[in-house]
Amino acid sequence: MNSTANTGATNAGDGPKGRMPAGAAVPTVDVDRSDPPYRAWLKEAVRKVQADANRSADTHLLRFPLPDEWGVDLYLKDESTHPTGSLKHRLARSLFLYGLCNGWVRPEAPVVEASSGSTAVSEAYFAKLVGVPFIAVMPRTTSREKCRLIEFHGGQCHFVDDSRKIYEEAAALAARSGGHYMDQFTYAERATDWRGNNNIAESIHHQLRLERHPEPAWIVATAGTGGTSATIARYVRYMQHDTRVCVADPENSCFFDGWKDRDPAASSERGSRIEGIGRPRMEPSFVTGAIDRMMKVPDAASVAAVRALEAAIGRKAGGSTGTGLWAALKIVAEMADQGRAGSVVTLICDPGDRYLDKYYSDAWLAEQGLDITPYAMAISRFLATGRWPD
């Protein structure tokens, strides 16, 4: 997987300005958006993206086995069954529709994205679908499998050594190539229709309608851009549900501190080891006011939880799933201890086969200095007794 610095595209990027580095040379081309060939291309591109949603927007809601007598049911929304294998398929679809309808995504002009991997895989898929080049700007530590999938879908990988530099490098690369910087971290929360239209929150509530607790007490999400938690939280308020939203945050992420301290300038000096979630800065799409609760989850606990998930339902999942599952199990324990019946929902964000050399590797855990034993024991004791260890 070679680092790529340029493409041969000549069309001007005319998305939101103000995010390009000072002095960046932006190619300028006068594009006539009333031109019949362009409008014909746009109609076909939007049709293809909407057809993908029609085929694959809904995903399964799986039950995590818990004793019925606890009175609490735990579900996992399996987003790994999307065509590109992750929760980010929904986001990428929304971002492409947003970019197309705004006139930012155009024929031949590359789409550039800053990503830790899964969003880039999904955006590469949609770029190929509508026929535009795609370049992913990612930390060099991104899993090899994610890089392979980006290239499988026709995208190119451009690596940076410091994960905090992906934003400015993506913007600069878009400027140099005449492309469009998709900027998921700014536009995730506004590109998705949070009022319905089969978004993830509406799907969860629809799929629970015949369960014994059809309105979930809690939905637990994790945050990379913050777009998913914003969509869920806005939807439940708009629909006047009593559902609460909890965001689980990994180590080396500033979201928890920024939310707790109401500090939009919160930051982290290190990048998250849990790919796809946790950020070194407070992202524009992370809507703190819509979130009811946050939990800080140790990385070792996240890994222990995904391994417990495999033991419980026979499915491997990525580390971000473990972060959310750990928080969901703690909420289940609280509800059971207080005698409160209800349902809790969290997400399977992506499949574990992308991380066999990380979260399922004991050598990687040793290299990172992570001991999952006490967390694995805590989960086992809880599932056996119904009480969370002190």
Keywords:
globular, Rossmann fold
How would you describe this protein?
- The protein is an alpha/beta fold.
- The chain is 40% helix and 13% strand.
- It has 13 helices and ten strands.
- The longest helix has 21 residues, at 36-56.
- The chain is globular and about 65 Å long.
Low-confidence stretches: 1-30
**How many structural units, i.e. domains?**
2
**Hey, roughly how much beta strand do the residues contain?**
5-15%
Strand order of the largest sheet: 1-2-10-7-8-9
Rg result: 21 Å
Oligomer: single chain
Helical amount among residues, as a percent range? 40-55%
**Could you spell the SSE succession in H and E letters?**
HEEHEHEHEHEHHEHEHEHHEHH
Region (Disordered): 1-31
GO molecular function, one term: lyase activity
Catalytic activity: L-cysteine + H2O = hydrogen sulfide + pyruvate + NH4(+) + H(+)
EC number: 4.4.1.1
Summary?
It contains 13 helices and ten strands. It is an alpha/beta fold. The protein starts with 35 loop residues before the first helix and ends in a 5-residue tail after the last helix.
Set out the fold topology:
Layout: H1 36-56, E1 61-64, E2 72-78, H2 88-101, E3 111-114, H3 118-130, E4 134-139, H4 144-152, E5 156-160, H5 166-177, E6 180-181, H6 184-191, H7 200-207, E7 218-222, H8 227-238, E8 244-250, H9 255-260, E9 293-297, H10 299-313, H11 319-337, E10 342-348, H12 362-368, H13 373-385
Parallel strand pairs: 2-10, 3-4, 3-6, 4-5, 7-8, 7-10, 8-9
Antiparallel strand pairs: 1-2
